Amino acid sequence: MKHRTKRSRSRNVVSLVFGFFLSLTTLLITILLVLRMGIVSRIGFTSVVDADYYRYTLDYIEDQTRYYTLPTGIDPQVLDGVFSLDEVKVDVDGMLVGKLNESGFSPKTDDLRKRLTENVERMFAADGVSTAEGSSAEEIVASYVDDIMGIYQDAITMPGIDMIVHVRDEFMQWFVVGLVVCVTLSVVLIASIVRLHHYRHRALRYLAYSFGGAALMSFVVPCILFASGFYKGLSVSPQFFYHFCVSLISRLFILLMAASAVLLVIMLVLILVSSRMRGTAIRRHGHRSR
Amino acid sequence: MVSNTVAFLVADEAPSFSSELTSIYDPEALTKAKEKTKTDKKESNTAAPTVIKGEDVQFPLSGEQYGQITCDQIGLNAPVYWYDDDEILAYGVGQSLISNLPGFGQVIILSGHNNTFFACLQNAAVGNVIKFGTNYCEYEYTVTNVQVYNEDDLESLLLQKVRDEREELILYTCYPFHAITGRKTDRLVVFADRTAGLDVQWREPTT
User: Fold this and answer.
1) Residues in chain A whose beta carbon is closer than 8 A to a beta carbon of chain B?
2) Which of the listed residues A156, A188, A216 is the one where a domain comes to its end?
């Protein structure tokens, strides 16, 4: 009886230790999959760019072009009606997809240039200044329009996008390696736990504990961080980029909490199966299988 | 170390992206202070202050209006903001961070656009009196010189002025006026010496 008690206790301790490591590997797999499918993927990334992002980008373009125009002596009213939300949306999306796919993108600014040039020439004409070809005023207009288009191009490009793409590429390289390692470890741990117990329902119990632990860890911390809203104090600008970062972080926390629900379901299924198998084992072998 | 890094990246409150700049300037502050001084004088028979204590001066944050400059002779009336980036210059006159507040015995460098708040500087002349209102005192500066400098020369001059321990108000703007030449490389500079207003005691007096 003593010998059986010692073996039983040591088996339980080993199962618990394996179960703990299994919960860690399960948590890591969850985090990797959430990042890969929900954040780093093109769809996940671009879906965070919403209507507010476009509106803030347009506001930024209007502010920056106005600040640039003020010291030049050109009336800032020449910028009225030049930029539109629809065009900003098309160019922002095009730039983002171009950067993420590393295929490049050049916005079509012909219409913008035409509208702006007409406005400036109208202003010059009202002041009695000729913008005929070859005149100094024509050069000034052309230079000014080029500079405004440069500001526009910078504004529709997300700050730090090149670095984000670089980080994404690095992540993709290590994602497969990380996933394979974690899955392999998980399989080894599961097999070890199953092998440790003659009655399979006891092994399933420890597996259920592991998934429950992983569900708890992937819910509690994101939930606390999400509820605290501390990340909303992120010191980034301009506003459209701040909005993007905060939305992305919120999305990450929500996805982790959703993933914890999946792990919870797996845990419940394992508990259910374990209890049924226990019932069967008791009927077959009596109280020793409890 | 982790908490310090987080504190560096994440502030306590969400940032404000409001296009309106904040202000600590209260035009009534001086009137209220004068009335209080009169009341204190009546009650305790104390003399009027001759210096302003440094702790009574509220330092503005970047982008905050802390004063107003006016000159009736040339039609100048502009809010003064601490710092001088493009956004601030769209709303008023900006102060260079290498300079100091009025009353501190050091140079005060203000810049503005030549087609908005500083358009009137083209009419500035020696002898004009510029009033600089703050919450702690109203100062007067009398124009001593008006000159055009190249922007590189002006930069060197301003750095020299910062090193001099003398209070001088310097206003500058792009030159020439009315010309649309893209980027202008000359600056019209107005120099003015203080002729009224109290010193701010911000250093230990040397014996």
Assistant:
1) 56, 63-64, 66-68, 70-74, 129, 137, 140, 143-144, 230-235, 237-239, 242
2) A156
Residue B87 is nearest to which of A67, A230, A232, comparing CB atoms? Answer: A67
Peptide bond before residue A238 is cis, with ω within 30 degrees of 0:
yes
B→A contacts (Cβ < 8 Å), by residue, are 8-15, 17, 19, 86-87, 89-90, 113-116, 174, 178-184
Q: Is the per-residue pLDDT at A3 higher than 50? A: no
Residue whose structure tokens are 């629809």: A86
CB-CB neighbors (< 8 A) of B183 in chain A:
72
Q: What residue ranges do the domains of chain B occupy? A: 22-201
**In the predicted structure, residue B192 carries a pLDDT above the cut 60:** yes
Domain of A189?
A: 2-40+162-289
Q: What is the DSSP letter of B61?
A: P
Q: How many domains does chain A have?
A: 2
Average pLDDT, chain A: 90
A150 with A166, same domain: the answer is no
Query: What's the rounded Cα separation, in Å, for the pair B7 and B9?
Result: 6
Domain boundary among A125, A156, A187: A156
Start-to-end CA span in chain B (Å): 44
* Domain assignment present for A46: no
On whether residue A47 sits in a domain, the answer given is no
Q: Do A167 and A255 lie in a common domain?
A: yes
Helix (H, G, I), strand (E, B) or coil at A143: helix
pLDDT, residue B153, reads 93
Task: Name the DSSP letter for residue A114.
Answer: H
Q: Do residues A180 and A66 both lie within one domain?
A: no
| Cα A237 from chain centroid (whole Å) | 18
What is the rounded distance in angstroms from the CA atom of residue B194 to the CA atom of residue B167? 7
Contact, B84 vs B70, CB < 8 A?
no
Condensed to tens digits (0 to 9), the pLDDT of residues B48-69 reads 678 888 888 999 999 999 999 9
Q: Do A87 and A102 have their domain in common?
A: yes
Confidence of residue B11 (pLDDT cuts 50, 70, 90): confident
Q: What is the CATH number of domain B22-201?
A: 2.40.260.10
Note whether A145 and A121 are same-domain residues.
Answer: yes
Find which of A55, A62, A69, A70 to mutate to test the B interface (most B CBs within 10 Å of its CB). Answer: A70
The nearest CA of chain B is from the CA of A87 a distance in Å of: 23
Reported ipTM: 0.77
Distance from CA of B155 to the nearest CA of A (A): 18
